[in-house]
Amino acid sequence: MSQVDLDKLDREPWGSLIKQIQGDISAGQNPKVFLCGSIFGGTGASGLPTIARLIDNKLKRINVRDRIKIGCLFVLPYFGFSPPAGEDPDGIYARSEQFSLNTEAALRYYVTQGQEIFDAVYLLGNENFSQVQFSIGKNSQRNQPHFIELYAGLAARHFLLTPPPQKGAVVLISRENRNMLTWEDIADTDEVKQKLINATRFAYAWLVEIASELTNARKQGADRFGRLAPWLTRFYRTNSNQTNLPDFSEAKEQQAIQIINRWCQEYLRWLSAIHQCDSERVALFNTDIFSNLDKQLKEEEQNNLVIGDNRDRTRKAQDNPKRLKERLNPNQITPPNQGTMGLAKAVYLELSNLWGTN
């Protein structure tokens, strides 16, 4: 906070933020600013409301505040820890026994002074505390993923797409069982569920079916491998006759493959981790299927990923790797529809179709 100009808010990155807002308004848009942070530690409890007020004051000063909505996610306590034996009791570090007091102070500030700043506030916490390893912060802090992160993303989604109409609204969400999380506990269940299913099926299928064959094509030569995998030749140039397609061996295409591979791996690791919270059962996906990405994933598990998959046998039988590859068609998707990006789009959309959604 020492680097923030309390009067002008012109230093970076704040200057760029204000310029972006002004540019969006000049283009006829109505920008939204969404702040997110915990309010149970010292920095978040004091910093988050202060940053919001600085932005609010700046936007009023340049006469654009009425064109902008400001929302905030206050993350309430959801984990705890115990300092290791021998830690200086008078040292400067966060203490989980003070989380409730810090939270109370921050919420009191919102009630007395912050309501006029925010157009909407989202409150998110969990009464079942996960235990994390003690850290004084900075580089040594490594909190494990938690399903609270999923809800935080859903809060941002809600504010950006359908913000509450009344200024100062406080948005909460609850679940039916305090020790379990199911699809019924997810906001906007139908749409969000399908998006998560599509993303998870894409990540799994890409690693199991596509990435492995792309690796073989690179090792054996795309021209030779393309004879065994015709779908490859629909997206890449594997011989001199396909002049309109990008060359499979180009560095740009190979780099894109690696980027998608890493995203799929990191997404599945995160998804698996948020299913492992203390004293909770998260029942969205059967993450045991991909809990260890160092082992070979099994293609026959593709149809067992989703908990509560109630498709009939016929539908599941049609949802198989062979059918997926046969139906990959760049002509049925909008550009970019060639090369690695086109292939990834085609895989995602075809998996959605095989599931029964678009």
TrEMBL record:
Q: Where is this region: Disordered?
A: 306-339
Q: Indicate, by first and last residue, each region the UniProt record lists as having compositional bias (Polar residues).
A: 329-339
Q: Which InterPro entries match?
A: Tubulin/FtsZ_GTPase_sf
Basic and acidic residues biased stretches: 309-328
The name on file for this protein is: Uncharacterized protein
What species does this protein belong to? Answer: Halotia branconii CENA392
Q: What is the lineage of its organism?
A: Bacteria, Bacillati, Cyanobacteriota, Cyanophyceae, Nostocales
